[in-house]
Hints:
Blueprint: H1 2-49, E1 65-73, E2 94-96, E3 105-110, E4 116-123, E5 131-136, H2 137-142, E6 151-158, E7 168-177, H3 180-194, E8 197-201, E9 209-216, H4 219-233, E10 237-242, E11 246-248
Parallel strand pairs: 1-5, 2-4
Antiparallel strand pairs: 1-6, 2-5, 3-4, 3-6, 7-9, 7-10, 8-9, 10-11
Amino acid sequence: xxxxxxxxxxxxxxxxxxxxxxxxxxxxxxxxxxxxxxxxxxxxxxxxxxxxxxxxxxxxxxxxxxxxxxxxxxxxxxxxxxxxxxxxxxxxxxxxxxxxxxxxxxxxxxxxxxxxxxxxxxxxxxxxxxxxxxxxxxxxxxxxxxxxxxxxxxxxxxxxxxxxxxxxxxxxxxxxxxxxxxxxxxxxxxxxxxxxxxxxxxxxxxxxxxxxxxxxxxxxxxxxxxxxxxxxxxxxxxxxxxxxxxxxx
Length: 249
């Protein structure tokens, strides 16, 4: 009897010893699976967080052709800032395109009458299905599409006109005023440090007197000046200046 009790006690102790070990193995397996799941989620989140950088816009070679519908825009956009940073002047030969890099030149042919116009891309648009280019009013007038509003056209990327070589430069606009006295006051305050400033008047706008600082041969140089001026006067942005046609603002 005593031996039987001893055997039963020994068996009970062995059973008690085995149970915790099994639980430990099970718990360890659960922790391992949970850790693997968390690691997988972290890797997936990291992969999703890494977005591909958008491709840099590259100007197509002269000769690239596109067909579609052209429209034109004037008021109320005249005098407003375009996507390129220039102020839109509807009486200049410019246009908006969704993908062509700024300063790309294109020749637009009205397929209804064969008339052509050469324009520089300064803005983004048109954001209407089926349309490929939005012309300034001056450009639309040149190919006789003011009345129709929209026409079928052929676009061809061209080299910049030779007669513009050496005439294009960039300045920084730091203010626009209704009164000339206020524009002159700002110009005088900046001339000592940044050199000569120009006053340019734009008709048919409320703040008609604009102050331009500097004159640079590249947009990059003008952007450097604009960053410096923003720290001093606040708003400042690069505009294109054409010697023959005044400031591009």
